[in-house]
Every structure is written in structure tokens, then in C-alpha cells.
Amino acid sequence: MPRTIKEALEQQLNGFYIGQRLILPFRCQIIKLITKDEIFTEFVGGKDIKISQDPQNTSIYFRHMGRLQSFLGDYGLIKMVVAEWDADLTDPHTHIKIIVELQDNHVARIAQPDNDILFIK
User: Fold this and answer.
1) Which of 12, 24, 94, 116 has the fewest CB atoms within 10 Å distance of its CB?
2) What ranges do the domains of the chain cover?
3) Positive or negative CA dihedral for 18, 57, 43, 108?
4) Mean pLDDT, residues 60-67 taken together
5) Cα 115 from chain centroid?
């Protein structure tokens, strides 16, 4: 059975990154993605980011940013607004804010942010 975002957060599961690919340990809908100083909301046919999904994972390919390892240190976090795969996206209560911190050894630590982290709406 597919894992939900809530289950992955409660179990403190990590994602994985390699090259230009970030793999989340759950299947989700991505509403907004914020990296460095860019905000992405277009994920269908976009030239910058491509999404691929299987029943257990969501993979995000960052086509224009080069290797994700460049995010280590200076840039730190990837911020996302996501929703469960079967959620009603028109209901803001289904939107979940998460942050992904890229760490050594290809570990992508996923958590819900503190209230002091700015998410542009």
C-alpha cells in the first residue's frame, strides 16, 4: 500500500538524491516548489522541472540547476507545498508544507517547517 506524506513525516523517513534527481519516500501532488531564489508552480511539460511517480515514490528532476549536490551548504533547503495523491487541491486545508535538506551521503532529510520559515503564497 502506498505511503502517505503524513506517515513518512511521522516515521521521519528520508528521501534520496543523486545527480539532478530528488526522490521523496511518498507519492504526492506538488503544488509549489521553492529553491534558491526561484518559485516553480508548473510541473507538466515544464523545461525546468520534471516529475515522475511510481506507487511508493515521487521523483523530481531539476533540469536547469545542475547537480543537487550544489545545494549543500549555501542554499540549504528546498521548500515545497504538497498534497496527498488523492487530495482535493482546491481545498487549502489539504496543502502540506515540507522542507527538504540535502545532507551528505545522498540523504534528503524531510520535515515540516517551523512557523518562522517563510513560504511565499
Assistant:
1) 116
2) 5-111
3) negative
4) 76
5) 18
Cα–Cα distance, 53 to 66 (Å, whole number) = 21
Residue 96 pLDDT exceeds 70:
yes
Cα–Cα distance, 73 to 113 (Å, whole number): 18
Sign of CA dihedral 62, 19, 74, 64: negative
Question: What is the rounded CA–CA span in Å between residue 108 and residue 62?
Answer: 15
CATH assignment, 5-111: 2.60.40
Distance between CA atoms of residues 73 and 84, nearest Å? 30
Rounded CA separation 81/89 (Å): 11
pLDDT at residue number 73: 54
